[in-house]
């Protein structure tokens, strides 16, 4: 028989998760608006290569993953990405550990160029 207390604990965990997603959705939306405004301010000739353009793409992709229920999952190991990482960079697709590993791999290659 299901333990009522564990059902309540699950529901509370679910509510907490939903609240965190709401916070991150607001953050993504806010940063997307800021990046779009920044791009709109740039001279037309520079817009095609403006760094804000890449940010817009990343933020839109993150909102799209959220719509599809795939948001917050590390593309490296499949674990949930830490809330602290997402609050800092809500478009990130790697957990802290995989990010460090990627940076270690990219390090020597970047230095060699
Ligand atoms: Zn990972």
Describe what this molecule looks like in 3D.
The protein has 113 residues and is mainly α. The chain has two domains: 71 residues; 41 residues, no CATH class. Helices cover 69% and strands 0% of the residues. The longest helix is centred in the first third of the chain and has 38 residues. The chain is flat, with a radius of gyration of 18 Å. It starts with a helix and ends with a helix. The structure holds zinc ion. The site of zinc ion has 8 residues, from helix 4.
Task: Output the radius of gyration.
Answer: 18 Å
Task: Write out the distinct hetero groups bound to the structure.
Answer: zinc ion
Percentage of residues in DSSP E strands: under 5%
- What is the residue-mean pLDDT, rounded to a whole number? 92
Number-wise, the strands total 0
Major beta sheet, specifics? none
Helix count? 4
End-to-end separation: 62 Å
The percent range for helix content is 55-70%
Q: Please trace the helix and strand order, writing H or E for each element.
A: HHHH
- The backbone outline, from C-alpha atoms, is flat
Structural class: mainly alpha
Estimate nothing, just give the exact number of structural domains: 2
Unreliable spans are: none
Zinc finger (dksA C4-type): 74-98
Protein name: DnaK suppressor protein
Q: What topology emerges from the helices and strands here?
A:
Layout: H1 4-41, H2 51-67, H3 83-88, H4 96-112
The protein binds zinc ion.
Zinc ion (ZN) is lined by residues 74, 76-77, 79, 94-95, 97-98.
């Amino acid at each position: 028989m299901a333990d009522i207390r564990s059902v309540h604990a699950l529901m509370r965990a679910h509510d907490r998760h939903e609240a965190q997603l709401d916070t991150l959705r607001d953050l993504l939306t806010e940063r997307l608006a800021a990046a779009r405004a920044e791009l709109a301010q740039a001279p037309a000739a520079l817009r095609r290569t403006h760094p804000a353009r890449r940010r817009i793409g990343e933020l839109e992709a993150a909102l799209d993953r959220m719509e599809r229920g795939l948001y917050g999952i590390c593309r490296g190991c499949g674990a949930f990405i830490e809330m602290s990482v997402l609050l800092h960079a809500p478009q990130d697709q790697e957990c802290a550990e995989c990010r460090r590993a990627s940076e270690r791999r990219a390090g020597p290659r970047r230095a060699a160029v």
